[in-house]
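Hey all, quick one. A colleague (J.T.) asked me to put the NAP job into the tracker so the inputs and the structure tokens live in one place instead of scattered across chat threads. No bug as far as I know, just bookkeeping. Sequence used:
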Amino acid sequence: MTEKIINGFEISQKKRKQIKEKVELLKAEGVIPGLAVILVGNNPASRSYVTGKGKASQEAGIHFELIEFPETIDEQKLLQEIERLNHDENIHGILVQLPLPKHINEESVIESISPEKDVDGFHPISIGRMMTGQDTFLPCTPHGMIELLKEKKIELNGKHVVVIGRSNIVGKPAGQLFLKENATVTYCHSKTKNMKEITKLADILVVAIGRPKFVTSDYVKEGAVVIDVGVNRLETGKLCGDVDFDDVLKVASYITPVPKGVGPMTITMLLENTVLSAEWVRSSLSRTM
Ligand code: NAP
């Protein structure tokens, strides 16, 4: 059974080693990749994600700046800080940890980040570039799942991928990235009727809904690959995904666990985007010299 489990932790460790090597090459050429993360308020989950990003950046040799603001910060002040970072030559990637307090307009904040430093890939320009196949920062979670499948040499070309969930940060871009890999993509969401009939057609089933253990084996075709994006905390304090892991393991050919599945790859792709941004800066510098 263990050979069916896609170990995102191990794969991300391997990728982080490669990223560290790229950082060393950049440093040898005088460019230190820099990532700035803005944290507003004191949401414990957000703080823990930010801590993880900082630790992973430092381990990879990436310069990391955490900028914290109180919950009450006014939107204008936040936008001014982003503008400052947009012009800071030591910073190649800017990330604003979401969610933001209700009085701040998330769209305005995301759109104020320079698309050239948008390492989360959430800016409408980054999304447009992704949709039209241009070079850009791909959103980290969907990109991470594609990388996991490629690492396991799972064929995507011509496969039917069903994505449950259509959020802007996971479901929608995941479908786009699978389309780019020549898969046939179907989306399901909360208004989808007869969902099991659709999900049972999937060669690859992606679940990103935020409902603990929602997908059971009766949603899954025998031999399908199941990617569980969900991160839910149970009353016991344990983490679980949107997929009933033990049940679905019986029918899937491959499955990602929670934790140690998609999650570690999200941070890894953030590091990769930061390094990519620094590489783009280095190549534009060498063109102007
Ligand atoms: P979200 O913005 O809340 O979107 C949830 C999506 O699921 C919506 O499109 C919703 O449909 C759909 N949905 C909800 N209940 C459903 C149901 N019963 N049947 C079918 N579809 C349903 O969530 P998100 O940001 O995409 O995150 C999804 C999960 O992934 C969460 O558990 C989150 O914590 C996790 N996540 C993990 C990572 C990672 O790095 N591992 C990163 C991001 C998110 P409607 O559009 O119709 O409302």
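Adding what we noticed when we looked at it: Residues 159 and 187 are 14 Å apart (CA to CA). The first helix runs from residue 8 to 28.
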